[in-house]
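Posting for a labmate who doesn't have an account.
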Amino acid sequence: MGLDPGALRDRLDAGLACLGFDPELAQRERLIDYLMLLARWNQAFNLTAVRDPHEMVARHLLDSLSIAPYLSGDEVLDLGTGAGLPGLPLAILDPRRYFVLLDSNGKKIRFVRQAVLTLGLDNCEPVQMRADVYRPAKKFATIVSRAMTSLAELRAIALALTARPARLLVMKGREPHEELADPSLTSNDVVVHPLQVPFVEGDRHLIEIRFH
């Protein structure tokens, strides 16, 4: 595993250009700082199966940022954030929005809290709690998730956590045809967006479930 910040920055800059983003230098540095912190913690705490920082640029940073155009509202919930994905990269890219990073895993939330502190992010709130019992004072216009469970189960959880209108954005690999056939997911409420993530081979899709 090589932690070469220069090579990581070059790969990130190329990927951001492909996605059509041009963040400030301080934001790019924060993205790299987050990745390097994740790589170091990952050696001891096994936070992600991706071990190579060079690969993390694409599979964690660019993959997370690819859904930025689909966010709406001022507050976003990252449901099952794990090591802060996709919430932390999105929060770095979009400091005007406030992100709640929710996960029940204490080890992962400890890392997220450390990352928020180290990076000086004042638009993030890490919360350790199970999603089915989390009841925030203010509901969300957008919920994002890296497919922590089935679409139907995520939709059921999101119903109690969203204002109206709202959207649930679920990141998937291949288009989940069987899950989309669930009766609770009507065609009028679901839009499938193919995603093009720089340097990531294979299919990537964003499943948008709309609440009216």
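Reply:
Got it, the structure tokens are right above this. DSSP finds seven helices and seven strands in the chain.
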